[in-house]
Amino acid sequence: MDPEDLSTPELSGLSTMLGITITAFGDGECTVEATVTDSHLNKGGVAHGGLHATMLDTALGGALVSALRKEEWCATAQLDLSYLDPAYSGSHLYAHGRVIRKGRNIAHLEGEIVNQDGKTIATGKGTWAIWVNRPKSLGGSE
Q1: Looking at the domain covering 12-138, what would its CATH class be?
Q2: pLDDT for the residue 142
Q3: Which sequence spans correspond to the domains of the chain?
Q4: Tens digits of per-residue pLDDT, 5-17?
Q5: Cα 80 to Cα 57: distance, rounded to the nearest angstrom
């Protein structure tokens, strides 16, 4: 990929609403961060698993996007998470994703979320579909 074509992608509205930001992007890797607020908590008083899922989906997807050609398109086909430890209000979370293997039409990725103390909160792995061009269903020409 031409480094001049590599720009940090715009996050989805959901990621933005959750306070997720991209802090590293390129060479098949991506890191996103968020600080857990009271609005992220479930009824048990810990960060809702949906926050972790969105952070890992964003980090893994971002890792793949950083390895695609400008005209290529991708989408999550499968995402598996393991929740290892809780995150509490005030915790700062870092989700890091990386491409493990990328083929022509499919890619495998993995990553983890750690807190500000380096404690692993969750891990994830996923499979992404890759298209040569943006699919017609998304307004593309393919």
Answers
A1: alpha beta
A2: 56
A3: 12-138
A4: 457 888 989 999 9
A5: 10
